[in-house]
Design goal:
alpha+beta; globular; 268 residues; 8 helices; 11 strands; BirA Bifunctional Protein, domain 2; three-stranded mixed β-sheet
Length: 268
């Protein structure tokens, strides 16, 4: 039985629903790699995915997960060059947080790539083909999943892979500026969207160097931080000057393989 047949059996085993039918129709035509974990986790992997098309698939997945609460959809991807703008200061956040998400419309003139407005917390962030992105679509409150456990699962396991397999011993999480850091450089950013208790969006890790993107970042302030704060795992490895025959080739696929091993052992 291939993955699509397995997914079809899983999502239709308790009867048809409009959300399940739509979800299967979409994945049946999607050029992506699918896997099933523990009978209720569907992973979808597709590189260089158009941002709007991936966003539409997130919405389809959210509808499916909202109706079929026992299931989770884990999306792994990256996107062509673009920027995304969140909704800014969220209910319950203090005004002193405003500089972290402030971005003047006039600053859009400094952007070299398309800007897309989306429904997640936070401000301006960026995507490019050298990233590794994880969008977990899950029901909050189901199986003990909370916002905090989801954030910790994503960020701490990214740090674990970077330390164990890619020689970044200084990789860590910073609570004040949500993401993964290596010393004073930010290499991953996280922002969640929540709609009727179902999550969307997620975490983006800068794996590969990209001069066109990072040169443009120097002119703006993603998430209120200086653009020069952001770097990639590749740049950090080069700067360290360390060479290792055991270090795997740095690609979104290789990082996915190590992260997937974690999912197999202890999926959220």
């Amino acid at each position: 039985m291939n993955s699509l047949e397995q997914i079809k059996n899983i999502i239709f085993q308790k009867g048809l629903s409009e959300a399940a039918t739509e979800f299967f129709e979409v994945i049946n035509t999607l050029e992506a790699e699918f896997k099933v974990l523990d009978g209720n986790i569907i992973t979808v992997k597709k590189w260089n995915w158009d941002y709007q098309e991936a966003l539409d698939f997130q919405k389809t997945s959210m509808n499916f997960v909202r109706v079929h609460k026992a299931y989770k959809v884990y999306i792994f991807c990256n996107h062509p060059h673009c920027y995304t703008m969140g909704r800014g200061l969220q209910k319950g956040q203090i005004a002193s947080s405003a500089p972290l998400i402030s971005f003047s419309p006039a600053d859009q003139k400094a952007l070299h790539f398309p800007l897309i407005h989306i429904k997640r917390g936070g401000g301006l962030t960026f995507h490019y083909p050298g990233q590794w992105i994880f969008y977990p679509i899950v029901n909050l409150g189901r199986d003990g999943v909370t916002v905090n456990t989801l954030l910790e699962f994503c960020l701490l396991n990214i740090v674990a892979v970077l330390k164990e397999h890619f020689d970044l011993p200084d990789a860590t999480c910073k609570k004040d500026y949500l993401g993964v850091w290596s010393n004073d450089h930010k290499i991953a950013s996280m922002g969640l969207g929540i709609e009727r208790f179902v999550t969307s969006h997620g975490v983006a890790l800068n794996l590969l160097a990209d001069s066109s993107m990072f040169n443009n970042l120097a002119k703006i302030n993603p998430c209120g931080l200086k653009g020069t704060v952001y770097t990639s795992v590749e740049d950090l490895i080069i700067a360290s000057g360390t060479k290792s025959s055991k270090r795997p080739i740095l690609t979104p696929d290789s990082f996915f393989d190590y992260f997937f091993d974690i999912l197999v052992k202890k999926a959220l």
